[in-house]
Amino acid sequence: MSDPMIRLRELYVEFNPPGKRIQAVNGVDLTVDRGEVVALIGESGSGKSVTLRAMMRLHPEKTTRYSGALEVAGQDVLGMGGGALSQLRGKRVAMIFQEPLLALDPVYTLGEQIVEAIRRHEPLGRAEARARALQLFERVRIPSPERRLDAYPHEMSGGMRQRAMIALALACNPQVLLADEPTTALDATVQIQILLLLRDLQRELGLSIVFVTHDIGAAAEVADRMAVMYAGRIVEEGPASELLTRPRHPYTRALLGSRDEGALRKGRRLDTIGGAPPDLARLPAGCAFAARCAFADDACRAAVPERRELGARHAAACRRLDELPALLAVRADEALPS
Amino acid sequence: MTGYLLRRLGYALPIMLGVSFLCFMLVHLSPGDPLVSILPADASAELQRQMMQLYGFDRPLLEQFLRWLWRALHGDLGTSIATSRPVTGEVFRAVGNTLMIAVLASLIGFSLGSLFGFVAGYFRNSWADRLASFVSVIGVSLPNYWLGMVLVIVFSAQLMWLPATGAGPGGSSDWAWDWAHVQYLILPALTMSFIPMGIVARTVRALVADTLSQEFVVGLRARGLGELGVLRHVVKNCAPTALAVVGLQLGYLLGGSILIETVFSWPGTGFLLNQAIFQRDLPLLQGSILILALFFVLLNLLVDVLQTVLDPRIERG
Description:
The complex is a heterodimer. Chain A is of the alpha/beta class. Chain A has two domains: 6-92 and 174-335, P-loop containing nucleotide triphosphate hydrolases (Rossmann fold); 104-172, no CATH class. Chain A is 34% helix and 20% strand. In chain A, helix 4 (110-121) crosses helix 5 (126-139), helix 5 (126-139) packs across helix 7 (158-169) and helix 7 runs parallel beside helix 8. The mean pLDDT of chain A is 87. Chain B is an all-alpha fold. Chain B contains twelve helices and no strands. Chain B has a domain at 91-310: MetI-like (MetI-like fold, Orthogonal Bundle). The termini of chain B are close together. In chain B, helix 9 (227-254) packs antiparallel against helix 12. Classes of the chains: A alpha/beta, B mainly alpha. At the A-B interface, helix 2 and helix 4 of A face helix 8 and helix 9 of B.
């Protein structure tokens, strides 16, 4: 692939608040090509949002340690100085947050905030910047955009706020859009509208999008590829359609199992994954999922499993990938009512 | 906006009425006879009765209150028993004097307090934070009459830069905005500014630290704003609360500090209240408390309105 927009190699992110050591991201490899949409999925605390924010180095500088390689739009994010970093942020890479009400400054109007962002990166006058802001509002399909530019964040509905947030992110024509659970805080119907909007914009503008969610349905709607994260590592990665229909890693299977066709049928017990994700301050030595995995053996608990290529850009990190189909068949037999 | 203002004024009216009732009655709760200070110790019972009648102290309290209120509404707060001068004039002269040092003290306190608080909140847990917090704790906890005396010793007695007491050269009572007069303001105002400075510094520190921990600051950084850009947003977020705090402080200062005004012989409201209490000058006491309370209510109103203008989240409807 020629010049990927995002390249992570062996990325580690560690938080060091006083007296603690939290290993939030533990060796992530990820490549996102130009114009590609990649979804990072996983439970809360799986490191997906941390990975996303690391791409802009948004974690508190003092208490965060990064290692590995992190390139965005051809630039070395971990090595660059503060000035270059703020040139990159908003200009080449922009972010959409989960809850726009919290991520927008409450005491400035949306118009003021967009104008400020534009003028930060481009030598435009106030009037020109405002004209661009108006175009952006039209582009993200906000009704009566002229009036909405003068609204404060709290004066708009959740869906409108998220549209405004997207407009703000697109203000300086970035090449990469990072979306941190952009639909989680919204109503179901609004979620779909926002997802469709993102997909349309991505196609029109040729954006690369990395999109964090725990909603597999939302991911399936827009993503070309998916990466499943667990305890700060990518456990399985592949084209969206392939991952959804032929998941290989036990964790991916379990995750998908909780939204199977039959899973929500009346009278059937909802499949859940027993146990809880590991404490990131005390990671186990071996596979982090072993404690919750029905197929784990002692070897799984001893060493972190290697990532294995499964062809067609599909990869997974599990020692027993090849034995799994047989093991699953046995379990299915046992589960049959006798 | 006009509707909002009118509504707020409407709320203020019953408060003012309640305040005037309370301050009239409170004074009557205190023991002692208001005429003791002007009647000779051997005054006859007849003379006492006549004086009671003259001042209206023999009527039922409620009637006294209503008469007093009626006249107060017309700008007449009665006559001082001790000086036989109209209370209104006395009080407004004192308020004017106190207003000068109180406003100056608030300005000093607000500027230094915001600066210290901002530095402390922004560089939390650094040496600058500890220094600023130390200064603000000192400001709040030092007894200010002591501080006043120290300032007098240093700047008046030792360095001889500034006058120690009074409100004008040669004990004159006519104010003018020239250096000869203004230099008398500086020491009392500086002394008075320490408490508001400390309080503002601590409030602003907490506000800045809280604002910086909010998600939207990450949002601002993600847009590529540098530290200065982020600071501008933080200031606007903190301003309404900081202003409210300093407004309240100004209200307290308007009551005058009896101790500071005594140390500096400043003819302000604290001085006047002190006088009125010791001379059992009921009309003067009631009048000054009422005027001060009204100033306080109006100041709060002003602060509320300012906050509404600055913070769009406060409903105007």
